[in-house]
Amino acid sequence: MKRMMIILVVISSVAGCKEYEEIQFLRLKEVKVNGVKNGDLLISSKAVFNNPNSFKGKLKSANIYALYKGDTLANVTPVEKVVVGPNTNFDVPLSLNVSINKLQKGLLSNLASLLRKRSVEIEFAGNIKVSSFGFTQTIPVNYKEDIAF
Length: 149
What we know:
Layout: H1 2-15, E1 24-37, E2 40-51, E3 57-68, E4 71-78, E5 83-84, E6 88-99, H2 100-107, H3 111-117, E7 119-132, E8 135-148
Antiparallel strand pairs: 1-2, 2-6, 3-4, 3-5, 3-7, 4-6, 7-8
C-alpha cells in the first residue's frame, strides 16, 4: 500500500508539471465613444488576450493608460472581474473618461489635420496582472487605435 501511494504521488507530480506559457495581449476591439459627461469623453473598449494554458486564472489588476502624443489622457479601468478560461481568448471590458480639455490642448496644434480626419490616434499602454495557482503574470499592453468622433 505504501509503495502504491509513492507511485501515485510521483505520477501526479510529473503529470502536473506542465510548463506555463505566457498570456498574450492581442488587440483592442469595440472601441466606442459613448457620449460626453461633465466635460469628459466616455469611451469603452474590450482588450483581447490569449491564454494558451490548460488552466484558468483571474484578472488581478489592470494598469493601462490612454495616451495622446505621449501625454496621459486617462487611466483605463476594468469594468468587471474577469475569469480567464483555459486555452482560449478572453476579453477584459474597459472604460475610460478622457478630459476633453486635456485632449483639446494637444489637438489645437493639429486642428487642420483633425478637421480633415475626424479621428484621433490614441495609444493604450500599461499592463494587466493575471494569477493562477498563486503564480502572477504581468502582461504588457501597447496598442494604438484611431478613435473617430
